[in-house]
Amino acid sequence: MNPKLLFWVPAALRMGLILAGVGVLWFMFGATSALVVATLAMAVLVFVQLGYLYQLSDWLDDPQSAKLPDGWGAWTNIFSRLYKLRRDDEKNQAELTEWLARFRQAMHLLPDGVVIMDDVLFLEWCNPAAEQHLGLTHERDKGMRVTNLVRSPDFMDYIILGRYDQPLTLSFRERKLIVHIIPFENRRQILVTHDATETERIEEMRRDFIANASHELRTPLTVIVGFLEIAASEGLDPATRAAHLKLMTEQGHRMQHLIEDMLTLSRLESVDYPMRPERVDIVKLMGQVQRDARALSAGKHEITMDVSGPDVMGSTEELHSAFGNLASNAVRYTPAGGKIHLSWAEGPSGIKFKVEDTGIGISPEHISRLTERFYRVDKSRSRETQGTGLGLAIVKHVLLRHGGTLQIKSEAGKGSSFIVCLPKTAIVPKQPELQLG
Ligand code: ADP
């Protein structure tokens, strides 16, 4: 039924009943007594209404603790609607609080920084990522001007120019940040910061790699082209021609090695080339590594080997490449007459492949950089011995794929130890022995 009718019909009925009662009294006892009773009834009614008004005002002052009565007459409807309004309000409040908590949690987890500022750049709120990126502290810096907090001439210029349709790349507190400012509502702005330090580092590595690879390929190519030009000219005696051809072949091999190593590295880094672990026959693998090292040494070094550890699960091809690189480095950086020892043994922290040499050694300042691509301590020695500068980078990537680590101990002029440590989890479990009979 229409709520207005619900209000007016009972009120009219009650009024009609009172008037009828007064009419009956008038008829039975005369006008005076009817008026007295009517006045008394009106006074009672006024007091009841005042009582309800008082309780309503009490409730409005403190809706949480004061309680509303059920009410009488029209008040029943008013009070029940007020109750319903309060219940709806509480529900909305709870929903809003929950939503706000979820929003805050999302903002806390967001890797990008978010700063809410007013139209004149006074800080209102920021998330933890923004605190980290810009060195802000929400509690301390609230109400301060963001340009006074982020002290960078580039940031100032960006604000002054106001070209917010383009992002700003900002170098700030040893980070590379991509900064956006987005106006919202009427008088607020959001500043968003994205940390691009890692992306920038990878991009720089890629640029360096291309520059280094081009440089490495250009050197042998220049030699080959030079010789080809000489060979094209007339009057070259057969001995010189043969010497030139030999040098060109060497340079060709150098380019071939380089390209093979670059392809190996890119394959190791590729997600489309997952490792398929298999049982690696260590005795066979170590035998191959020793044979390759002896072939490279051509009898100039004493190469010994000791294999006592168990077989492991991994990629035979990749481990061959890693161990082979370490053994070939030992040969190439150890002067003739030196000693090289290869070993494979199980220790308390895992299984260790060790290559020890009595070679030229490495000064401490180089050790942490040896696994960088194209990093060489002695460029000319590396090139003379067909080095590509990628061997240890390949070792690093193979070990990453096998959960292993590389430890380098070296002293200039005395020799080096390269130790590969593979986790115990890589060990092939022993087969239970068959009980015969
Ligand atoms: P390269 O092809 O130049 O040998 P690597 O990545 O294998 O490249 O090695 C990087 C550098 O580390 C080498 O250029 C060399 O200076 C140094 N190095 C590697 N192994 C040894 C070693 N056993 N003794 C001395 N120096 C070494």
TrEMBL record:
One of its GO terms (biological process) is phosphate ion transport. GO terms for molecular function: ATP binding; phosphoprotein phosphatase activity; phosphorelay sensor kinase activity. It is a multi-pass membrane protein. Residues 212-426 form the Histidine kinase domain. It is an enzyme of class 2 (transferase). It catalyses: ATP + protein L-histidine = ADP + protein N-phospho-L-histidine. The keyword Kinase applies. Its EC number is 2.7.13.3. CDD domains: HisKA. GO terms for cellular component: membrane raft; plasma membrane. PANTHER family: PHOSPHATE REGULON SENSOR PROTEIN PHOR. Member of the two-component regulatory system PhoR/PhoB involved in the phosphate regulon genes expression. PhoR may function as a membrane-associated protein kinase that phosphorylates PhoB in response to environmental signals. This is Phosphate regulon sensor protein PhoR. The gene is phoR.
